[in-house]
Design brief:
By secondary structure, this protein is mainly alpha-helical. The chain has a single domain, classed as MetI-like (MetI-like fold, Orthogonal Bundle). The chain is built from 13 helices and no strands.
């Protein structure tokens, strides 16, 4: 059976035009978007839009918020008033303390973003290396670290965060200290998750042939871990990080609601605003708790949609990528013998 070279060239051209020969994009997230289709892509787009919206609020809070988070009057000294309904001057109304609700919601986005980035970053920096070393070396170090993480898993996450927060700052703090304390409190909750996931993947990967070959060639342990194992065991870390980011927002709101978060005079925090709005609801004041609650729900939904979509993209069994149609060239007419 003979194959004509022009036919092969035409097939390759058709595959390239139909998307089979598509190159990887250098823009972050474009390849993940291309790997989705239909409802899955809609979830990813919706999540990214919501997260970007709150990121813009947080980054440009000084220019978006008309007032400071604790301002109770305009620049010319005009007092807002307490529990004033939404108006042209105060779009979301005012709180029982006379602060502008819209400004507190915007500044609260900045507080939430700072705590999320700190908590997730510290959790990854601590949990991933511990899991890598523990899973590869094994022995008494592995047993000790597993025992500690199992003990941390036994505590309810919010209760553990409260205990750590009290131990760090005694329950009260400044803005910087409160953000750092909240981030560390959440970190203690999430480090065991990264540790267990990376450790289990490392235990499975250390017996693979390519790892055995690296050891047989005399590669040091740290070279084997960093060069041959690390890249294969951290593929699920971005998914865990996005899902933990949503849970971190709820944990931060829980700390603020119970009075263990950032001091009201030091920064805006949605959980604390909800706590103060509980008594307002009984009097028919709905705006002090509605908008912070909507902000919490929206950002958690957005981060969760991104995390679930990334999980579908990285897991081949769940992937629903769009299959491009392959156009084959027409077969040339057979020449008579």
């Amino acid at each position: 059976m003979s194959v004509n070279l022009p036919e092969l060239e035409g097939t390759e051209t058709a595959l390239a035009l139909s998307g089979g020969g598509r190159k990887h994009s250098r823009i972050p997230g474009v390849d993940a978007m291309r790997a989705t289709a239909g409802f899955q892509r809609g979830m990813l787009v919706a999540g990214v839009v919501i997260v970007l919206f709150f990121a813009v609020l947080a980054l440009f809070a000084p220019w978006i918020a008309p007032y400071g988070f604790d301002d109770d009057r305009t620049a010319d000294g005009k007092v807002f008033g307490r529990l004033i309904a939404p108006s042209s001057q105060n779009w979301f109304g005012t709180t029982a303390g006379g602060e502008d609700v819209f400004s507190r919601v915007v500044w609260g986005a900045q507080t939430a973003l700072e705590v999320i980035l700190l908590a997730v970053s510290i959790s990854i920096v601590v949990g991933v290396p511990l899991g890598l070393v523990s899973g590869y070396l094994g022995g008494w170090l592995d047993r000790m670290l597993v025992l500690v993480t199992d003990a941390l898993f036994a505590f309810p996450s919010l209760l553990l965060a409260i205990i750590v927060n009290i131990a760090i700052v005694g329950g009260t703090s400044s803005q910087v200290g409160g953000i750092l304390a909240a981030a560390i409190s959440i970190t203690v909750v999430y480090v065991p998750q990264y540790f267990r996931v990376v450790r289990n993947a490392t235990v499975a990967a250390r017996e693979e042939p390519y790892v055995e070959a690296a050891r047989a060639l005399g590669a040091p342990k740290y070279v084997v871990m960093l060069r041959y194992i690390f890249g294969n065991v951290v593929q699920t870390v971005p998914v865990i990080a996005t899902l933990n980011a949503g849970d971190a927002i709820l944990t931060l709101a829980g700390l603020g609601f119970l009075g263990y978060g950032i001091e009201p005079s030091a920064g805006a925090e949605w959980g604390h605003d909800l706590s103060r709005a509980v008594s307002d609801t009984a009097a028919g004041i709905w705006w002090t708790g509605l908008y912070p609650g909507i902000a919490i729900v929206l950002i958690v939904v957005g981060v969760t949609l991104v995390g679930e979509s990334l999980n579908d993209v990285l897991n081949p069994l769940l992937r629903t990528a769009k299959v491009s149609q392959v156009v084959l060239p027409e077969r040339a007419a057979e020449q008579p013998e």
